Amino acid sequence: MLVERHAGTSTHPRGRGNNLRTMEIFRTAGLESRIREAARVLAGNDGILQVDTLTGKERRWIIGDISGGMDVSRVSSSDWCLCSQNDLEPVLLRYAREQGADIRFGSELLSFTQTGEGVQAQVMRRDTGETYTVNADFLVAADGPRSPIRTQLGIGQSGPGELFHNVSVTFRSRALQNHVGEKRFVVCYATNPRGEGALLPVDNKERWVIHVPWYPDRGEALEDFTDERLAAHIRAAVGVADIDVEITGKAPWHASKRVADSYGEGRVFLAGDSAHEMPPTGAFGSNTGIQDAHNLAWKLASVLRGWAGLSLLDSYERERRPVALATGTRACVQAADEQHPGFSPAAGRNNDPADLMTVALCYRYASNAVVGAAPEQPIVPDAFQLGGEPGSRAPHMWVMRGADRISTLDLYERSFVLLAGSGGQKWRSAVEKASRNLGFPVEAYLVGTGADHDLVPDLDADWAELHGTAEDGAVLVRPDGFVAWRADAAMPDADRVLTNVLQTLLSRD
């Protein structure tokens, strides 16, 4: 059940950068094609541009290619996607309802109490004032940066707090597209002091957004941003004094860096902006929130189905909070590199586009839900690295399953999955025995070209090398696509070892 105080989905074009990991999650959920259809008008946009004015002579690409020139198909089943929140949320809403979700708009959580057995909440219908009680096993607070639930739990936050302030302005201009240039950008930073701002296309034709710096510490009020002032600001950013501009909306936003000191208490968990805030540069904030939810969802499902003990849920904070801390720091560096309007820190470093790929795909977990992780390693490595290490996102590999070409990532969502190569029949038998012992499904796939293999790799792909093991080894992958455990080679009593590993991972006594 989702309780949402607003009457419907978001109407403002924000939070539009969906990175590779998020799109992989949407793919395994069966949503990728729907989202790309909703985002088709921006499918050709790429890169981050900086200009004095859009029509001026000073023009440089801060990032020419979001993927840093990398062949994305070699590392992922998906690709980046620009889909604004107002276009994305209706897709998610329709699909959630198709899956049987109970979505209650115009409903506000008034209060809640919890015991060791569950959570009881008081909810109000905002149109009628009617209140009712909801009894649930768990409560997930995705209630934004000023989270009332986090406040009620008494959970503090760490970090520098507010960094800068902008006014996000939506407007129409039919002539603006004539000044964009041949290559369509993701965002264009105008540095002209009279028109400083971050310009973003909404449809590449007549709908646009510009983020204008706002300085409340200098006495500026939101009311000072009149339509006339904003239209003049946009014209200065473009460099055309008489270009058509129609202001259609404006909303303030505050870029902050904060992380909750805890990700929950008892049966209540924080996710998204209630757990962490970071600058929008790099699109890290929304992606981190979506990946929070994905990490928590399979763990809640495992507990509710009786597969796991409650202690599994402790791994949510242990895994996701360090990622938020590392990612928030990287978002601040990105804001400095891009010289985001209103942000005036010490100079950033020269940005390496591949760094965005590293942050998006290579973060690591070390918790009670991983066996064999190296806790001394950095949460985000210095360079792009996906080698099948426990705690890392499982490598992507194109394979044939019968007549279908799929990614190995497509296998991971509903259960634990074990991949094995030659000699894999022993691993398949071990999986079957472990699954019977534990009373929940574990799937096994043998990778190779033999008649008894389930997945045939592309000709240039070496399964064992890609996953950091030997041909007779195996890799166990969690339902969220992260490596839970790895066997370097075949082993005696593999079913006993695998049973013990799964019991440990799932906190089963």
From TrEMBL:
Cofactor(s) this protein cannot do without: FAD
Keyword Flavoprotein belongs to the record: yes
Keywords, ordered alphabetically: FAD, Flavoprotein
InterPro entries reported for this sequence: FAD-bd, FAD/NAD-bd_sf, RIFMO-like
Flavoprotein among keywords: yes
Domain FAD-binding: 1-326
Protein name: FAD-binding domain-containing protein
Native source species: Streptomyces shaanxiensis
